[in-house]
Amino acid sequence: MRKRNPVDLSLYLVTDRRLATGFTLEELITRAIEGGVTVVQLREKECSSREFYELALRAKKILPPEIPLIINDRLDIALASGASGLHLGQSDLPVEVARKHLGPEAIIGLSVENLEQLKEAVNLPVDYLAISPIFPTPTKTDTGPAWGLDGLEQARRLTDLPLVAIGGINESNVVSVIKAGADGVAVVSAICAARDPEEAARRLRNIIEKARRNR
Amino acid sequence: MRKRNPVDLSLYLVTDRRLATGFTLEELITRAIEGGVTVVQLREKECSSREFYELALRAKKILPPEIPLIINDRLDIALASGASGLHLGQSDLPVEVARKHLGPEAIIGLSVENLEQLKEAVNLPVDYLAISPIFPTPTKTDTGPAWGLDGLEQARRLTDLPLVAIGGINESNVVSVIKAGADGVAVVSAICAARDPEEAARRLRNIIEKARRNR
Fold first, then answer.
1. Which CATH number fits domain A11-214: 3.30.2130.10, 3.30.300.30, 3.30.450.40, 3.20.20.70?
2. What is the pTM of this model?
């Protein structure tokens, strides 16, 4: 059986430059890491391949070695930038194809939007799954209905793959997500749109750690 | 010095599904090849990675071995589908990066929009250049000013790299483009939007062969 690549999913930042207020993406990432983010995923749907590549190179340069850089969707950008891994959605390249080209040591994550996709995913060469969306969210509009906390608990019972929940997570509901069995939470706007991304990350991380101790 | 991969640029089809009237992309490609197209490039800017990948697999299946399948922009789709090569624009991944991941035998082409880009390109590991746009064109709106026939002649004097001209080429001006020194012409709408793509390709190919003999 394939050895799974370990990844600390505790607080997983998915970037959205369009939401950042008054920060460059590099500033946003730097502050979010200071605040306790454990993974950074670059999700850029609206820029050229060259821009995405150069952004990935810059992000890689500012990330400390313990924080993996994950590229959304684009296997080519992940390969070209030497990122730590790739996050795939259901309409991206098949996981096996990405694994073949990235090799065994790259972190590969997959978003699953329902139980059927989750059951398929447990047999794929992935290192973690994203339960998406956990709550309804305005950030991403092309997803299926939300899993909810019950759905997350069900997912948790079905697999021992690390699970990160994404979609509509903020300070007010993060405890319930951790208690329902997520290994971590992924956020976009809760950090990207915050006036103080470092402080926003720090507060979320503290709540997550406390919820874990009380689980 | 790097050995250049040979490619017959005579009649180079760049696909645009949105222009096809009443044909699937597979039908369009099949007919265009019957008519004499020598290269097929898939250019898909508006679909998911999975769709582009599956389209490339289907295209590959219907192409005879002597017709190379070239993927526009997306190194990952070229890799994943096992296409013959990749066509890059100035805002796509750097040529050296693509060459590193595709290996020495992949066909790599690059669009150049002015003399400066052409002079840079002659030192890159490319197999051919696209002179883009040769004439003003409605198909692609993000390009620089047209090269014109004088510009093409100038480009021809500056490099022995195979040159394919693209942009606004049709039956009425193809002779002048071949006479100005192009090794071939790339067309989008002249074939994709034709009511009879096979006949459109055949007529263009005949004109090109005749223009070459009279050059």
1. 3.20.20.70
2. 0.95
